């Protein structure tokens, strides 16, 4: 079979992984003493990697992750209140395999979302099903599903995930209906799959988020039963970035706030 025919068949069959390595693999093979099965194995491994990579890229696109930062990009020296070892243990994803949860607590800008995204990317790399959603968006979707009578189907989707990341719980309080639906979701995922949750509110303030102490306790009960809590106390990284570029984020004059240069102060 001609060289050209082989490449055209590989293209037709969408075997780009093999197509990419074929020439160099054939060259090395003809010089060495490997048997033909070893050559075939090498080509199939290249195709397997290509398939996994494609799957990863597609899953990343549908994951809802707001940015694609890894745990390697996180500067632990900037945030000494975080136990690096604890985050490295989370990076092994044991918590996800054991269907446990993770909660990141702390003020704005300390890296809660970055760490949640980093763990999400680790899970994606292992071919796991993940989804990232803002807490308010999630509750709005549940409410809409309830009104449109497909709540069960919607919850089934969230339940089917290996890892659901719920970001920014507590920036806005939930109304009674929203709080009940949130509780319903958390109880359905309890011991069935993992949740990573980020919040700017300490647990003692959660009755204010849910505007109902009983409901807040019920959510916390399920969420925290098997859970790693990372409590971050520190400075905002966003502020550091602004200071570095000579911009300050002090809300003084409306319209000029963030763009006020140090020299103008
Ligand atoms: P939070 O969710 O706590 O408000 P983010 O995770 O969104 O904070 O962090 C704000 C920005 O600063 C993001 O771009 C994030 O990547 C970056 N960032 C925060 N902390 C760190 C850190 N320790 N090292 C590197 N980048 C960081
Ligand atoms: Mg955040």
TrEMBL record:
<keyword id="KW-0067">ATP-binding</keyword>
<dbReference type="GO" id="GO:0006260">
    <property type="term" value="P:DNA replication"/>
</dbReference>
<dbReference type="GO" id="GO:0005524">
    <property type="term" value="F:ATP binding"/>
</dbReference>
<dbReference type="InterPro" id="IPR028350">
    <property type="entry name" value="DNAC/IstB-like"/>
</dbReference>
<feature type="domain" description="AAA+ ATPase">
    <location>
        <begin position="98"/>
        <end position="230"/>
    </location>
</feature>
<dbReference type="InterPro" id="IPR002611">
    <property type="entry name" value="IstB_ATP-bd"/>
</dbReference>
<dbReference type="InterPro" id="IPR027417">
    <property type="entry name" value="P-loop_NTPase"/>
</dbReference>
<comment type="similarity">
    <text>Belongs to the IS21/IS1162 putative ATP-binding protein family.</text>
</comment>
<dbReference type="InterPro" id="IPR047661">
    <property type="entry name" value="IstB"/>
</dbReference>
<dbReference type="InterPro" id="IPR003593">
    <property type="entry name" value="AAA+_ATPase"/>
</dbReference>
<dbReference type="Pfam" id="PF01695">
    <property type="entry name" value="IstB_IS21"/>
</dbReference>
<keyword id="KW-0547">Nucleotide-binding</keyword>
<protein>
    <submittedName>
        <fullName>IstB domain protein ATP-binding protein</fullName>
    </submittedName>
</protein>
């Amino acid at each position: 079979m001609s060289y050209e025919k082989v490449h055209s068949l590989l293209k037709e069959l969408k075997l780009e992984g093999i197509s990419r390595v074929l020439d160099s693999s054939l060259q090395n093979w003809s010089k060495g003493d490997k048997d033909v099965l070893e050559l075939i194995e090498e080509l199939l491994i290249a195709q397997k990697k290509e398939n996994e990579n494609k799957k990863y890229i597609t899953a990343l696109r549908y994951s809802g992750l707001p940015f694609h930062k890894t745990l390697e990009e996180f500067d632990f020296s900037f945030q000494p209140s975080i136990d690096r070892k604890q985050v490295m243990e989370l990076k092994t994803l044991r918590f996800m395999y054991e269907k446990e949860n993770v909660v990141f607590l702390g003020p704005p800008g300390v890296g809660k979302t970055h760490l949640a995204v980093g763990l999400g990317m680790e899970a994606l790399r292992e071919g796991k099903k993940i989804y990232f959603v803002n807490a308010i968006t999630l509750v709005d979707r549940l409410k809409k599903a309830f009104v449109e009578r497909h709540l069960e189907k919607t919850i089934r989707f969230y339940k089917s995930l290996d890892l659901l990341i719920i970001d920014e719980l507590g920036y806005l309080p939930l109304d009674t209906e929203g709080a009940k639906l949130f509780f319903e979701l958390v109880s359905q995922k309890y011991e069935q799959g993992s949740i990573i949750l980020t919040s700017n509110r300490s647990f003692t303030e959660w009755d204010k988020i849910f505007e109902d102490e009983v409901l807040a306790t019920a959510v916390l009960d399920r969420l925290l039963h098997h859970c790693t809590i990372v409590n971050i106390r520190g400075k905002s990284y966003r502020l550091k970035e602004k200071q570095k570029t000579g911009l300050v984020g002090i809300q003084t004059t409306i319209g000029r706030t963030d763009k006020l240069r140090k020299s103008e102060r």
